[in-house]
Amino acid sequence: MAEPGRLGVLEANLRQVNNRIDEAMAACGRRDRPTLIVVTKFFPPEDVMLLSRLGIRDVGENRDQEAAAKAEAVSSAELRWHFIGQLQTNKARSVVGYAHAVHSVDRTSLVSALEKAMRRANRPPAIESVGTVARSAVLDCFVQVNLSVEDRGRGGARPSDVLEVAAAIHAADGLRLAGVMAVAPLDEDPREAFSRLTDISTDVVAQYPDARGISAGMSGDLEQAIAAGATHLRVGSDILGARPPVG
Ligand SMILES: *Cc1c(COP(=O)(O)O)cnc(C)c1O
Question: Rounded distance, CA 150 to CA 203, Å?
């Protein structure tokens, strides 16, 4: 028998991940399905095209150079690009050129840079395709929270700074406060880390009732994230395969 091509591999992996999502939702009695963002970092534009054929609409990237090139290369797909990596202020202008959402907003200086970039970008008032990329007049922004007890500089605002960053996003023209985002620390049970994120989300929603997003859950911990109320999952390796180790 012929080996399944790349499309078949991605289809099978996606089906598995979707089954895990179904089971995790059933286990905690959830009915609202989280948005699956497929993280395509390190994988070529051809894979993004195949994912688009398989019905994926949301893709995630963590480096601007790679994301910008991929968004440009994937010409026939109607996709929403989610920026999920640490972001320098001098990259804000490039990122608003293709991104539907930034999940890694962790300081007020970045909020200012994104606001300024959105003002210059003059994005259209309704969701529409500009060239090839689905964008809208507003940029969805999640406040990234650092859930590590010891700060290891992986990005993210300290929990005590989250409301300040949220307020800045809320006040900024062209940005929409979507909610909070986090990566579970490696040295802790993700349930405990995500439960702190849920508490932080509750504080944010108390002040900004529309900012209900919780971006949490990766290949290894999507079940725990779903149980904690994640609205956006960011899944890479369990769909695309192992990435080369990052040096
Ligand atoms: C790479 C990455 C992911 C996806 O991780 P996997 O373990 O491959 O599913 C999710 N979130 C962020 C912020 C990432 O950088």
Answer: 22
